[in-house]
C-alpha cells in the first residue's frame, strides 16, 4: 500500500465513470484495477481497449475498500512483447483453469465415457472466470433445468468473487436466465446478444461465455447458436435431449458448439438428466460447493420422470442427504409451479429457498404452502380435462388418449398445456400401469404436446423426434416444428392444417409395430 508498482497484463474491461477511467487488468496471477484521470467523465488513454496488453505504472491505494492502482502511465504493448506476455498469461490461465480431479457422485459407465467432455466444460467455465469474461447461463424453465442452472451458479459465484476481489462480481460477471422452450429459441438469443453487445459498448466488457443447460442439443437450437457464433462467442452445452444422428461422438449442432455434453454422444439416453450432468460439472468446477448441491440431481430426476440406474442412485443420494423421494417430488413440483409465475426472471432467492439452499425453516414452510396450492390447481385442471379425454385402445395394443386443451383446460394459469398433458398422462398411467404402452396427445389451435410411456419406446421403437421429421417432410405446407425427448415433447404447426397434422400423427401411432 502506498508503493509504486509496475504491472504488465491484459485489459479485460474499460469502464468510464463520472470521474476517472477504470481499467481492469489481468495477468498470470490475478486481476486488479487501474484508475486514470484527466478530466471528470473524460475517457483517458482512448487507444487502450479491452483485449490489449498494457504496462501500468502507478501507486497502490484503496478505493471503496478495493485495491486500486492510481496510474501514472498506461502504455499499450505491441509486437513481440505483446505476443510473449499474452502467451505467458494464456499458459498460466490454462493451468489454473484445469478442474480438480474429482470423483463422480455415483458410479456410471455413461458418466465415465462423458468425463472428457465434462472436464472440457468445467475447464471452459473456469477459464472464463479467470480471463475476465462474464458467464451467461441459459436453462430450461423446469425443475431439471433450474436444478442445473442453480448448480452451476453455486459453483461459479464464489470463484468469481475470489478472482475479482469484489463482492459485486456475481452481478457484473454472472447471469442466469430461464428459457420457456426446451431449446435455445430466437427470442432468447436476440436478448442475450443485445445485452452482451451493449455491455461491450457501455461497460467495456468482453463478450460472455454462453452456457446452455437442458437445451442446446437439437436442430431447433441451430439457428440461435449460429447467430451466437457469428460474434465468436464461446458456447458450452450440457443437455440430455435427443440430438439426432450421432457420428463419431458428434451431432449437427456441434458445428456451432465448443463443448458439448450429452449422454447420447456416448451411447446413453435422456434418463441421465441435465440437472445431474450440471451438478457433476459443478463438482469439477468448485468441489467446495458439492456438499451443498448433492441433493439437486435427485430432484431433477424426479421432476423429469427419469427412470434409470443413475436416476435411482441420485434419488437415493438425495434421500441420504435428508430428502425422501416424496420430498424430492414435492420440491420438484414447487419449482415447476414457481417457474410458471417467475416467467423470465431467475428468482434466485425464492428458488434457493425451495431447493433447500437457504434457511431450512423457511424451506419447509414455503414448500408446504406452494405444494398445496399447486395440487389444488392441478386438481382443478384435471376436473375439467379428464371427463373430456378421448381414450381408445388401438389394434397394436397402445392406449391412445386425445385432449383438446384449448376447450377443456383453463388458460393462462398453472398448469400450462404441457404440464396439463403430463398430469393427464400420469393419471392414465396410474390406471393401466407403467408397463402398458400409452400415448397422450393434448392439442390446441396450432400446437400439440405429446407424452408416452417408456413401454411404447421399448416395444415399438417410438421416437417423437423421428415422427416430427417425418411429418415435416410429408406435410411441408404445415410448417411443422418441434421435438424433445423420445417420449415427451411438442409439435407446432399452422392452425389451418391442424386437422391434417393431428390425423397424420395419430396414423403414425396406429401404424407403430407394422
Give a description of the structure.
The protein is of the alpha/beta class. The chain has 3 domains: 4-86, Nucleic acid-binding proteins (OB fold (Dihydrolipoamide Acetyltransferase, E2P), Beta Barrel), CATH 2.40.50.140; 98-323, inorganic pyrophosphatase (n-terminal core); 389-510, Diaminopimelate Epimerase, Chain A, domain 1. The protein has 17 helices and 16 strands. The strands form 3 sheets. A 6-stranded mixed β-sheet has the order 11-12-13-14-16-15, with helices on both faces. The chain has a 5-stranded mixed barrel with strand order 1-2-3-5-4. It has a 5-stranded parallel β-sheet with strand order 7-6-8-9-10, sandwiched between helices. It is elongated. The mean pLDDT is 93.
How would you summarize what this structure contains?
With 514 residues, the chain is of the alpha/beta class. It is built from 17 helices and 16 strands. The radius of gyration is 25 Å and the shape is elongated.
Amino acid at each position: 500500500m502506498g508503493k509504486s508498482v509496475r504491472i504488465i497484463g491484459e485489459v479485460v474491461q474499460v469502464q468510464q465513470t463520472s470521474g476517472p477511467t477504470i481499467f481492469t487488468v489481468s495477468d498470470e496471477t490475478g486481476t486488479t484495477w487501474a484508475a486514470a484521470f484527466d478530466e471528470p467523465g473524460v475517457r483517458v488513454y482512448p487507444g487502450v481497449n479491452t483485449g490489449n496488453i498494457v504496462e501500468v505504472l502507478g501507486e497502490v491505494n484503496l478505493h471503496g475498500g478495493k485495491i486500486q492502482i492510481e496510474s501514472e502511465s498506461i502504455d499499450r504493448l505491441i509486437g513481440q512483447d505483446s505476443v510473449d506476455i499474452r502467451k505467458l498469461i494464456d499458459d498460466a490461465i490454462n493451468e489454473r483453469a484445469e478442474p480438480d480431479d474429482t470423483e463422480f457422485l455415483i458410479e456410471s459407465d455413461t458418466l465415465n465415457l462423458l468425463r472428457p467432455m465434462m472436464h472440457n466444460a468445467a475447464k471452459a467455465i473456469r477459464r472464463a472466470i479467470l480471463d475476465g469474461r462474464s458467464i451467461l447461463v441459459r436453462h430450461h424453465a423446469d425443475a431439471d433445468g433450474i436444478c442445473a442452472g442453480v448448480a452451476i451458479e453455486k459453483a461459479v459465484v464464489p470463484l468469481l468473487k475470489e478472482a475479482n476481489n469484489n463482492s459485486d462480481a456475481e452481478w457484473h460477471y454472472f447471469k442466469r436466465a430461464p428459457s420457456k422452450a426446451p431449446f435455445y429459441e430466437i427470442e432468447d438469443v436476440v436478448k442475450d446478444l443485445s445485452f452482451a453487445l451493449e455491455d461491450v459498448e457501455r461497460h467495456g466488457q468482453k463478450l460472455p461465455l454462453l452456457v446452455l443447460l437442458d437445451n442446446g442439443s437439437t436442430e431447433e437450437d441451430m439457428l440461435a447458436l449460429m447467430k451466437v457464433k457469428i460474434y465468436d462467442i464461446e458456447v458450452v452445452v450440457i443437455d440430455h435431449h435427443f440430438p439426432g444422428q450421432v457420428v463419431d461422438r458428434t451431432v449437427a449442432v456441434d458445428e456451432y458448439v465448443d463443448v458439448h455434453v450429452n449422454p447420447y454422444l456416448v451411447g446413453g439416453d435422456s434418463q441421465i438428466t441435465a440437472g445431474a450432468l450440471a451438478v457433476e460439472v459443478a463438482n469439477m468446477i468448485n468441489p467446495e460447493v458439492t456438499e451443498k448441491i448433492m441433493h439437486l440431481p435427485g430432484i431433477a430426476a424426479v421432476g423429469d420422470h427419469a427412470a434409470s440406474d443413475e436416476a435411482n442412485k441420485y434419488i437415493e443420494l438425495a434421500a441420504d442427504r435428508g430428502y425422501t423421494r416424496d420430498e424430492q417430488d414435492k420440491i420438484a413440483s414447487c419449482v415447476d409451479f414457481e417457474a410458471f409465475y417467475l416467467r423470465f426472471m431467475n428468482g434466485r432467492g425464492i428458488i434457493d429457498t425451495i431447493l433447500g439452499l437457504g434457511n431450512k425453516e423457511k424451506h419447509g414452510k414455503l414448500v408446504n404452502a406452494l405444494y398445496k396450492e399447486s395440487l389444488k390447481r392441478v386438481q382443478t385442471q384435471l376436473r375439467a380435462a379428464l371427463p373430456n379425454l378421448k381414450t381408445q385402445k388401438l389394434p397394436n395394443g397402445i392406449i391412445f388418449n386425445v385432449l383438446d386443451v384449448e376447450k377443456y383446460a383453463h388458460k393462462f394459469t398453472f398448469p400450462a398445456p404441457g404440464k396439463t398433458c403430463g398430469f393427464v398422462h400420469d393419471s392414465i398411467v396410474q390406471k393401466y400401469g407403467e408397463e402398458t404402452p400409452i400415448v397422450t396427445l393434448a392439442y390446441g389451435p396450432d400446437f400439440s404436446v405429446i407424452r408416452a410411456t417408456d413401454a411404447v419406446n421399448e416395444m415399438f421403437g417410438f421416437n417423437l423426434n423421428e415422427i416430427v421429421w417425418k411429418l415435416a417432410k410429408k406435410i411441408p405446407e404445415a410448417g411443422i416444428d418441434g421435438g424433445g425427448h423420445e417420449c415427451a415433447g411438442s409439435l407446432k404447426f399452422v392452425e389451418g392444417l391442424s386437422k391434417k397434422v393431428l390425423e397424420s400423427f395419430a396414423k403414425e401411432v396406429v401404424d407403430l409395430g407394422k
